[in-house]
Specification:
By secondary structure, the protein is mainly α. Helix content is 48%, strand content 5%. It has a two-stranded antiparallel ribbon. A hairpin with a 6-residue loop joins β5 and β6. The radius of gyration is 22 Å and the shape is globular. The two termini are 39 Å apart.
Length: 473
């Protein structure tokens, strides 16, 4: 459809705003999982079809992650496709008459939030990337060089501040799932935390910004921790009081259902786990994430399993798999699960970390760390004698390691782990040990260039004068 003649009414613009929301599914189905989880020490590919170096090199730091990797190209192309859809909204909307000027600003704010979210992924994965702030032809887009990481983060912050100022706190039921002011504030807190750490290393002033923004979210009355951790991932209880922003999925449509039932099933399981068997293994938990849970932590059984019982035979098969996104109402590859991108427990833990990193209010930080543990303790499968509240820590270093591990198990398989390790400069220590144990990796072969993915070869070939490869690739 010709964009020049289509966007004429409020209804047209509402359709345009829905477009980038829909586009996010192409990223969250698999690609962001590979970047946020498989790249980390949380998950691995327990099975790959054929001999796919494209998959194994994302997971195995002993393999060279090549610039012609199809998944890396998919990350880049689908991200910029989403950004294009946001820019169409922003380019067309001012010419469209609205009966309510606030609604026009809301639509702009939604597009800017989605653009900021996508750029936040891009800059953490690739570093310097082209800044596209308007609708461009393919020919013009190819003329753009890479903007600095600092410039991209400034752009993200600018978009999120606009979103924060123009988004509603809630929506009527028919619009449930659209981003709210809480989502904008929550993402901005996360962006500030990342800017404070590696690679920008802006330090204390940005930890203070993250602290303040996280506290704004915490003080919003519409948000609270769901009392049962298991309920967070119940497909009948989506968009809960804990959720700041979820990627919406709906089974039964055309590419609107989520695929994780089958993708996360253990490799070669023949209907023991899902009705459609003989797939899976694309996001298998590692031994180290299995061991990271304290004894009796109910979050483990809700989030993952160490194996399954074969049928026939009744033999236990030691193949770990993610359970967090299992839809019990339907066991095929078209499911109702949403992907929770931002939730309150994440904000609690970021808030606690920001306080500790500034050397202040350790009692308050401890309170929020323990709130997350208390909810876990009281969840399905929990009991009073597990996950005791942490006492005051002897050092900030010990406190930060406790927060790191709490983030790992609380947010397991939600695409946070790799980026937490990078921003805190813990990736080298954690990943060299993990890779040594799992893949025979020589820790002396570590190179910090591994913290970024390569720029796709196809992108460089389109504009070799301006698009240069990341170091080490």
């Amino acid at each position: 459809m010709n964009a020049g003649i289509f966007y004429k009414t409020e209804q047209d613009m509402n359709q345009a705003v829905m477009s980038p929301y829909t586009s996010l599914r192409n990223l969250y189905n698999q690609l962001f999982i590979y970047a946020g989880e498989v790249r980390s020490d949380n998950t691995t590919f327990s099975w790959v079809p054929g001999n796919s170096k494209d998959m194994t090199s994302i997971d195995n730091f002993g393999d060279v992650l090549l610039s012609d990797n199809s998944f890396v190209l998919g990350l880049w192309n689908n991200s910029y496709h989403t950004i294009l859809r946001c820019n169409i909204v922003l380019d067309k909307i001012d010419a469209v008459p609205f009966t309510d000027p606030k609604l026009k600003e809301q639509y702009k704010a939604e597009a800017k939030f989605l653009r900021a979210l996508t750029y936040f992924w891009l800059v953490r994965i690739f570093g310097d990337v082209p800044k596209v702030d308007k609708q461009l032809s393919v020919a013009d887009a190819y003329k753009l060089g890479r903007a600095s990481t600092q410039e991209i983060y400034d752009f993200i912050v600018e978009d999120l501040k606009f979103a924060e100022a123009n988004l509603p706190a809630t929506y009527p039921a028919v619009d449930k799932g659209r981003v709210t002011v809480g989502g904008a504030k929550g993402l901005l807190a996360k962006v500030y935390m990342t800017m404070a750490g590696y690679p920008l290393k802006k330090g204390a002033p940005y930890y203070a910004l993250a602290e303040a923004k996280a506290l704004e979210v915490i003080n919003m009355p519409q948000y609270s921790l769901v009392s049962d951790y298991k309920a967070l991932f119940d497909v009948t209880k989506k968009n809960s009081t804990e959720s700041l922003f979820e990627i919406q999925y709906k089974k039964g449509g055309t590419s609107t259902g989520s695929p994780w039932n089958n993708d996360f099933a253990p490799r070669f399981s023949n209907r023991e786990v899902v009705l459609v068997g003989d797939k899976g293994g694309f996001n298998a938990p590692t031994p180290s994430i299995s061991d990271a849970y304290e004894k009796g932590d109910p979050r483990k059984a809700i989030s993952m399993s160490d194996g399954y019982v074969s049928v026939p035979g009744g033999k236990f098969i030691n193949e770990k798999y993610v359970k967090k996104y299992y839809d019990v109402s339907f066991s095929g590859s078209d499911n109702d699960n949403n992907w929770i991108e931002l939730r309150l427990a994440d904000i609690y833990l970021l808030y606690a970390e920001a306080l500790v990193r500034q050397g202040k209010q350790q009692d308050v930080a401890l309170t929020y760390l323990n709130k997350v543990r208390t909810r876990a303790r009281n969840s399905t499968g929990g009991s009073a004698d597990i996950l005791p509240n942490y006492a005051p820590f002897s050092s900030d270093a010990a406190f930060l390691l406790a927060i790191e591990n709490e983030r790992r198990v609380e947010l397991a398989f939600e695409n946070h782990r790799w980026f937490d390790l990078v921003r805190t400069e813990r990736a080298k220590a954690v990943m060299t040990q993990e890779q040594k144990e799992q893949n025979g990796f020589n820790p002396s072969a570590w190179n910090d260039n591994m913290l970024l993915f390569p720029i796709p070869l196809q992108v460089i070939q389109s504009n070799p004068e301006k698009i240069k490869q990341n170091p080490g690739y």
